[in-house]
Amino acid sequence: MARKLLVISAGVSTPSSTRLLADQLADAVGTGVTARGEAVDVDVLELAPLAASLATTVTSGVAPADVTAARDLVASADGVIAVTPIFTASYSGLFKMFFDVLDPEALTGVPMVIAATAGTPRHSLVLDHAVRPLMNYLRADVVPTAVFAATEDFGTSELGGRIRRAAGELAQRLVGTATVAGFGGPTDRSDAPRRSGGANDLGAVTPFAELLQGHTGS
């Protein structure tokens, strides 16, 4: 059975260096998986066309059909590549908004490569001080090698080496049986949280007026 690899790109331009890096990583993961005698199906999820729908989901709590379909892709993925452009020294707002509307268990135990693009190498630590903590919070299984690419890095052997190393780490997890749901890993435990494409539902919210009812402030 082919593994399902989901590539999430938060690039906002055309052509997009973020999408270019995402495609290079996906190709390298595909090579790594097939070299191990397995197959992989790749889906690409561009977040830019979802921007208005994501804003609707955040402000109304109701997900349009395209956001629901995107959630389902995440919930069914065996592995994820997540790539964001760097804006103002962190991941883009579009990137964060997408992960904000996922079910809290949608990425539990899922192998993941994180990557970022920027115009300058000064932002190279963003992956470890911003993106990796976000994915750790969501309990994704982030591989040790993250891939940062400044504009000047494209086409260099150094970037190619980082891509191959990160892709190899993800490919190893995809064909292994230790962490992938459906293949006997930890997420198959009977007491493990179930992944779903549902919303980040925090349950019923008690209005402040009700919480403060009878409180005089003294």
Automatic annotation (TrEMBL):
Any one GO molecular function term: oxidoreductase activity
Gene3D superfamilies in the cross-refs: 3.40.50.360
Residues in coiled coil: none
SUPFAM superfamilies: Flavoproteins
NADPH-dependent FMN reductase-like domain span: 4-152
A UniProt-annotated Pfam family: FMN_red
DNA-binding found in the keyword field: no
Region (Disordered): 181-203
Key words, A-Z: Flavoprotein, FMN, Oxidoreductase
Name the UniProt record assigns to this protein: Oxidoreductase
Protein source organism: Gordonia phthalatica
